[in-house]
Amino acid sequence: MNLNLKNWENCCKYQAGSWHGTWTTYSPSLEILKVVNVITSLELNPEETEIHHINYYTYADGTKEEQDYGRYTQDNCRASLFLENTFSWGIQQLEAGSRLVMEIGFRHENQRTRFVTAYDESHTLQRTTVIREQLSVPPSEPAQPTVENLSGVWQGNSVSITPDLQVSEAIPIQWQGFDSLGEQNQVLFFPDGISLSCPLQLEIGETLAIAVGWLLNSTEHQRVIRQYDQHGNFTSMALETLRRVS
Q1: How buried is 26 (Cβ within 10 angstroms: 0-12 exposed, 13-18 middle, 19+ buried)?
Q2: What are the E-state strand segments in 96-163?
Q3: CB 145 within 8 A of CB 191
Q4: Which of 3, 77, 92, 183 is close enough to 165 for a disulfide, judged by CB 3.0 to 4.6 Å?
Q5: Can you tell me the distance from the alpha carbon of 18 to that of 54, in angstroms, rounded to the nearest whole number?
Q6: Rounded CA gap, 60 and 49, in Å?
Q7: Would you give the DSSP letter of residue 207?
Q8: What was the pLDDT predicted at 77?
Q9: CA 108 to chain centre
């Protein structure tokens, strides 16, 4: 199959629609910095050849703003990786003095969770943004508590995609814990069963893994991991899908 076409088909299947959500921005110490209500309109044309992206913002003081991000096609959408129901985009190479911003997203039924991680020019974690969305209507349920432990035995598989859209075979895995990506990573927990594993300070010359997990329900958990090599090059995005078996 044409890999670029498959990437685009995953985008259209799982991401198109009108997403009503709440964007909550946190400091590295988990202080809430800003909360914004946003409708993200990703309108797919009848031919399924382009998606028109417009955001409608409503700020805490009641002011509103509209921002048109243009139209996506399978050609200009290639920088984003769409793997099954998940996606990710971000800087392709970390260099001295460059900022690192990346987004990881999941869809489950009519809900979508997105997570933006931002590092400044000194490669220090600056802020994170949790985006809770529901298709067509605002989220009806308040954010659930954090989940800092997955009790029981969780099993599943891991599949990865490279920047040139090559998708690996699925590998059987078992859950190893939120802190399984290395001592350099800090693990932060957010409402709705969302977790972040990342270094607070990035170092060029070392391999890097940044992961976002989402507990979909009491028996399903997914985690997406963006990996960079010691030269700062983005190498792969991995999707771990696990179910509780006992």
Answers
A1: middle
A2: 100-108, 111-119, 125-135, 154-161
A3: yes
A4: 3
A5: 10
A6: 36
A7: -
A8: 86
A9: 13
| Residue whose pair of structure tokens reads 């992206």 in the numeric block | 53
pLDDT exceeds 80 at position 16: yes
Are the C-beta atoms of 53 and 15 separated by less than 8 Å? no
Q: How far is CA 228 from CA 37, 167, 175, 232, in A?
A: 32, 17, 22, 6
pLDDT digit string, tens, across residues 53-99: 999 999 999 999 999 999 999 988 878 999 999 999 999 999 999 99
Q: Strand order of the sheet with strand 81-83?
A: 64-72, 51-58, 32-44, 17-26, 125-135, 111-119, 100-108, 86-90, 81-83
Q: Which is it for strands 32-44 and 220-228: parallel, antiparallel or unpaired?
A: unpaired
Domain 3-244 class, CATH top level: mainly beta
Domain boundaries along the sequence of the chain: 3-244
CA-to-CA distance for 146 and 143, rounded, in angstroms?
9
